[in-house]
Amino acid sequence: MSEYYFDGKGKAFRPIIVALMARACNIHHNNSRHVQASQRAIALIAEMIHTASLVHDDVIDDASSRRGKHTVNKIWGEKKAVLAGDLILSAASIALARIGNTTVISILTQVIEDLVRGEFLQLGSKENENERFAHYLEKTFKKTASLIANSCKAVSVLGCPDPVVHEIAYQYGKNIGIAFQLIDDVLDFTSCSDQMGKPTSADLKLGLATGPVLFACQQFPEMNAMIMRRFSLPGDVDRARQYVLQSDGVQQTTYLAQQYCHEAVREISKLRPSPERDALIQLSEIVLTRDK
Ligand code: FPP
Ligand code: FPP
Ligand code: MG
């Protein structure tokens, strides 16, 4: 069960960023593009933490498909899915301890706290509209960006002693991570399940008001009540969906994602030029144009 998603068919977005960041930092520091074993381990650990969280997330969301296949909970049931997620997380913890660097251990254990707190934030809602957007961005950081930001920071710590570089790596990961999730929230409205390999139009059904909904609500204040009751009345999900599609919510969320990507590019451009640095810049474009 715990090997089920390690089939080479995921996007491997996180390990790719981490491996590129490792090289970009190593080149910046001493002109060596050699990726250390400990840095490679961070790429694996990041994907393991991510996978563990998805296995648990699919239990929480009662999802039956992911990456075009049945979820662990769908095949083996919820109890075993919870334990399979725990097992993946424990494998990640063992690998992390084996690196033997306490700074790196602190950086990556923070991610685990953020993931869980992000998931808790998602269960709550805010009455006040301004607070709601801040709440959404905080949730987005914790749920998605923290893992990318902190994995980037971890490989920079292993590759280079300069705290300025650690901050660049962190800021790049944070901004690209937030953009990635904003686009995920857009794709939930604009893409289809076949393309995504997981259910779409899912967030409203789960009671979640993401970027496109929060922007749409500025144009159609009548959505407020629906957001507050988490789209729980019959017809709420369809009506909210119509409002979103009539509004500029999707465009505004995409525009916001672009802003975060620009910031990521601005940060990473502070490193010495290298093909890997350029790949990280290109990656920000892929985040914005991806359709799965
Ligand atoms: C996907 O969200 C879920 C996450 C990015 C994080 C889930 C985190 C937990 C369940 C906390 C437990 C964490 C660990 C480390 C075991 P989504 O539902 O918006 O995306 P989806 O459409 O891909 O399901
Ligand atoms: C309490 O037993 C339970 C255990 C000793 C083990 C439970 C283990 C899991 C659910 C696996 C997941 C593990 C982690 C680390 C998340 P008990 O009957 O002694 O309980 P009591 O103290 O309440 O009497
Ligand atoms: Mg989910």
From TrEMBL:
Signal peptide: none annotated. GO terms for cellular component: heterotetrameric polyprenyl diphosphate synthase complex. Gene3D superfamilies: Farnesyl Diphosphate Synthase. Its cofactor is Mg(2+). The keyword Mitochondrion applies. PROSITE patterns: POLYPRENYL_SYNTHASE_1, POLYPRENYL_SYNTHASE_2. GO terms for biological process: isoprenoid biosynthetic process; ubiquinone biosynthetic process. InterPro entries: Isoprenoid_synthase_dom_sf (IPR008949), Polyprenyl_synt (IPR000092), Polyprenyl_synt_CS (IPR033749). Its EC number is 2.5.1.91. Its main location: mitochondrion. It is found in: Mitochondrion. Belongs to the FPP/GGPP synthase family. This is All trans-polyprenyl-diphosphate synthase PDSS1. It comes from Saimiri boliviensis boliviensis. The gene is PDSS1.
